[in-house]
Amino acid sequence: MMLWLKIFLIAALPISELRGAIPYGLAKGVPIWIVWALAVAGNMLPVPFILIFLHPIEKFLRRWRFWSRLLDKIFEYTRRKTKKSIEKWESLALIIFVAIPLPVTGAWTGSLAAYLFGLDFKKSMLCIFIGVIMASIIVVAATLAGIKLLSL
Question: What pLDDT is attached to residue 143?
């Protein structure tokens, strides 16, 4: 049971996410479906909190001129650079961004991107969830392929 909790928590962390949880769980001999379910659930756990609490955090920081200007620049730059592509492809772009299992992509960064672009909460949750499912399948396949290569 403690091993299951470790897998879940590794998946919930911002750097490792499911890219770390799935190989860890499989290496420890936990059945693939349990590892997969724990990794997806753990990876999705912080998403609604990030989407909900970024607004109050932004509002709090905007009380100081320095932070308000910095946030204005970040939002303006981000939206100006990607406005046309996000308006046209917002859902698909978010799904693909989360689905690519590389550093600085995933549920945490996808949640931040959804907030920066002002995307709808429910749509963001669904797109991030689909991206997490896709990423988990890629990571499971890559991990199993690596395990098979190591055992040859």
Answer: 93
Please state, for a pLDDT cut of 70, what percent of the chain lies above it: 89
pLDDT at 148 > cutoff 60: no
Q: 130 near 30, Cβ under 8 Å?
A: no
What kind and span of H or E run contains 69? helix 65-99
Query: Which pLDDT belongs to residue 84?
Result: 59
Within 10 Å of residue 71's Cβ, how many Cβ atoms? 14
Instruction: Kindly give the residue spans of alpha helices, DSSP state H, lying in the chain.
Output: 2-12, 17-27, 32-44, 46-61, 65-99, 107-116, 121-151
* Start-to-end C-alpha separation, the chain: 31
The answer to whether 111 touches 135, Cβ cutoff 8 Å, is: no
Find out whether 87 and 80 touch, Cβ atoms under 8 Å. no
Identify whether the C-beta of residue 130 lies closer than 8 Å to the C-beta of residue 94. Answer: no
Strand, helix or coil at 6?
helix
User: What gap in Å lies between CA 83 and CA 2, rounded to an integer?
Assistant: 45
CA distance linking residue 9 with residue 17, whole number of Å: 9
Q: Which residue range forms the structural domain that includes residue 95? A: 2-151
How many domains is the chain partitioned into structurally? Answer: 1
Compute the distance between CA of residue 82 and CA of residue 61 in angstroms, rounded to an integer: 24
How far apart CA 35 and CA 64 sit, in angstroms, is 44
